Amino acid sequence: MANSALLPALARAFLAGETTVNAIAARSAKTLGRNWRWLRPLARRYLAATSNEIRPRERDIIAFFLHDPGFRRAWSNHFDELRVARWLLEPHRMQPVAAVATWDVPAIETVGALADWLAITADELLWFADLKGLNYKSKQPRLGHYHYRVLAKKSGAIRLIEAPKSRLKALQRRILAEILDKIPAHPAAHGFVPARSIQSFIAPHLAQRVVLKMDLSDFFPSITGARIQTIFRMLGYPESVADVLGGICTNAVPRRVWREATAEANPEQLYDACLLHTRPHLPQGAPTSPALANICAYRIDCRLTGLARSAGAEYTRYADDLAFSGGDDFEHVVERFSTHVAAVFLEEGFHVNHRKTRIMRQGVRQRLVGLVANQHANVPRTDFDRLKAMLHNCVRQGVQSQNRTAHPRFRAYLDGRIGWVESVNPAKGQRLRAIYDLIAWQ
Asked: At a CB cut-off of 8 Å and minimum separation 6, what does 165 contact?
């Protein structure tokens, strides 16, 4: 049964975007050349099974047929009569889930229409999407779509920066601006969300009795290409279009990249990173990755918000940094609470970096994403004093005496660090800015 042409032909009729029993049965009758009595009941069972789900793939529909007793009985009784009378070649229509039907995303129903929307040819589109992994297998870096940089942290952990080349980045930016930015973020998500920032991430946790800080391991590469394609099918895009959109927004890192890793990298962690990044995943460095990561984490944010409320706590997330805080009731259960949070992430396909988990009570410095959050958001004193000393030395001893790492844009680097302090504590930032204005730049 599984090898018959009838199953994929019938699946196309079911996937055309129709949402009523009569419409699905009519298209199926055209495919089979006869209005079989069992088509309407089959369509009714199909809609009942998929009405609240993301648009299924063709293989999912075939699996539904194979497990449906009514269809199996019809196949057995009419085996010699069933045939494909007509393949329906019309493009599948948009079919978003009910919750997202009001979002203003562009309707793109074929791969050709997607190429036109991105102002490239169909061949170029398939080359950028690379669904067959040809760039992954290529030994020529010039043919790849990304620049790579392997960084070894002090702990021995590996971070890979995947920066898309200019043409691919332009495609990703359009997808971000006209599709992904139309999708609202969860209220608990503060990273890479307009009108939200590190300050809004920290605000609910100021002056709290206890703060729980947790961190995720390999947040971006843990999100697979299959999950990204599912997001686009959730938005209503046909399978072929969703797969290509997912291919443009994900990447599989060639193994040759890891041979260029620094000598400081831990060999075991380098091997684990290689395994994680060689499958299609969200690249850390693509414009679309933060928005897609927030969408993938929406269900997690819902679960953790409910879990926090049940424990009398507040919850916010900034990319892969998580913060929970509360009063006396939360302090009594915070250790057990952190275990429940880790279990939620395991169920959702992520892992907590337990070495970075911190339970910070009022008697210690409560630090989140580089800021102190005990009474009000502030820059740590040691960081402020170090930057102030650097600026003073630039004034007294010259700029080159402080640019020990030969930073190519040292002036912009210092200006950015001062701007960061100004955004958190304007008074301290103005003091640093006054010293910065005294520097004699050559």
From this structure: 144, 145, 146, 147
CA distance 11 to 9: 5
Across 73-92, average pLDDT: 86
CB-CB contact of 58 with 108 (8 Å) = no
CA–CA distance, 350 with 343 (Å, rounded to integer): 9
- Inter-residue contact 287 to 178 (CB < 8 Å): no
Rounded to whole angstroms, the Cα distance separating 399 from 111 reads 54
Sign of CA dihedral 426, 429, 435, 438: negative
The 10s digit of each residue's pLDDT in 375-425 is: 888 999 999 999 999 999 999 999 989 988 888 899 999 999 999 999 899
Number of Cβ atoms within 10 Å of the Cβ of 399: 16
Instruction: Give the mean model confidence (pLDDT) for residues 36-59.
Output: 88
Q: Computed from CA positions of residues 337, 339, 342, 344, in that sequence, does the dihedral angle turn out positive or negative?
A: negative
Question: Helices 225-234 and 239-249 meet at what angle, rounded to 10?
Answer: 130
Tokens coding 8: 């994929």
pLDDT classification of 182: cutoffs 50, 70, 90: very high
Residue 160 near residue 272, CB atoms below 8 Å: no
Residue 347, C-beta contacts closer than 8 angstroms, at least 6 positions apart: none
6-17 mean pLDDT: 86
The pLDDT, as a whole number, for residue 264 is 60
Helix, strand, coil % over all residues of the chain, rounded to 5: 50, 10, 35
**Among all chains, which residue has been given the structure tokens 């046909």?**
238
8 A C-beta contact, residue 371 and residue 424: yes
Output 155-158 pairs: Cβ under 8 A, ≥24 positions apart: 155/355, 156/265, 156/266, 156/269, 157/266, 157/269, 158/261, 158/265, 158/266, 158/269, 158/270, 158/272, 158/273
pLDDT, position 265: 67
Strand partners, 217: 351
Q: What is the dihedral of CA 357, 361, 367, 369, to 10 degrees?
A: 50
Strands annotated E in 49-121? none
Residue 322: Cβ-neighbour burial (10 angstroms; 0-12, 13-18, 19+): buried
Q: Residues near 312 by Cβ (< 8 Å), separated by ≥ 6?
A: 326, 327, 329, 330
CB 264 within 8 A of CB 286: no
